[in-house]
User: Fold this.
Amino acid sequence: MMDPSKTSGERSVYDIQQFLATSIPGTERVLCDELLELGFSGVRFNRGAIPFRGRWREGWRACLVSRIAQRIRVLLHRFPAPDEEALYAGVRAVDWRPFLSWRQTLSVGAFCRASSIRHSGFAALKVKDAIVDQIRGDGGKRPSVSREDPDVRVYLYLLKDRASIYLDLSGESLHRRGYRMETGEAPLRETLAAAILRLSEWDRTAPLVDPMCGSGTIAIEAALWASGRPPGLSRERFGFERWANFGDKEERMMRELRGELRGGGSEKIPRILASDLDENVLKAARANARRAGVRISFKHRSVFDLQGDGTRKVLVTNPPYGVRLGTGPDFCRRVGSVFSRLHGWRICLLAGSPDYERSISLRPHRKIQLPNGDLNCDFLTYEIP
Ligand SMILES: C[S@@+](CC[C@H](N)C(=O)[O-])C[C@H]1O[C@@H](n2cnc3c(N)ncnc32)[C@H](O)[C@@H]1O
Assistant:
């Protein structure tokens, strides 16, 4: 990576970088545990996103190995920005040339809170102006903005008139692993599936069951986790691979890193059983599992035919909810009564309706609010006696 030591007037970001792993709200604790387990340095619990630090390669590694992070960002500059002039000047003080040339496209996102600049759209525009003015200054031509597929993604976080400028290493959100081409009606983000598996406290040795598996996300993420296979290996490219300074040397280093990580997986994983009532969605799930390279026992079966067989299993599922998927209180009650008969099992539900909690006569061992897209869900876990 080219020497970005001149990116900040206030502090050098050449050697050890300060990274930030963003997560779905409510999953920060498990993301923090995951990053610690994966051996990252400087990991600290923080609501909204987990900081860690290391050389550039550690940022690349995080993109490849974290199952729960949504995005990995690197801090370029932090400075006081009480007004638009200060914001513009602070962004211009960063040397953007290592990352961006006039041939490339960029996008700028912003979040403002408790600051004199209140409108995030306005703040993002100022940041964009400062960047393109610097690049234009060098050669006359300027990079253009792309909302859909930018080469370089910049993010401003403005809190109490203090600006932090981040560059996004991920590119597309990390939940896009590359294996899920086909989905059913309400697919779960892969990162959320990975987070609820960790929240379920599954030990990766007991058999795991998803009786309403849809496109198979929970089962596939479980198999990837149990086999220790890094989730990012099926992704063709990350955002940082499109930066101006990503040359032949960096490409070689990235190939080596991918190679090292590819060697680490294990073939021996516990039985993972996934079923669904909908044959078409099961076909999609099978194709997704094939692409992910994992072995799962799929079955066409109604959840109402699920029975215990005397061995302890962990059930993790995201049952249907609402009119669109044709469910109501009666469906939830019937599901609750099936689950209550699975003696000795641990039952974990990402429930989009309070009717599921009402349908099980036990107190949940754990209850956490998690957003699933636009829907607020409860993640509930039970130990069935
Ligand atoms: C919210 S979706 C699950 C989405 C899944 N987690 C994914 O990532 O694709 C709920 C699933 O429950 C299935 N379903 C509905 N009624 C069922 C029943 N009686 N038995 C089994 N599956 C059922 C639907 O076909 C749908 O695939």
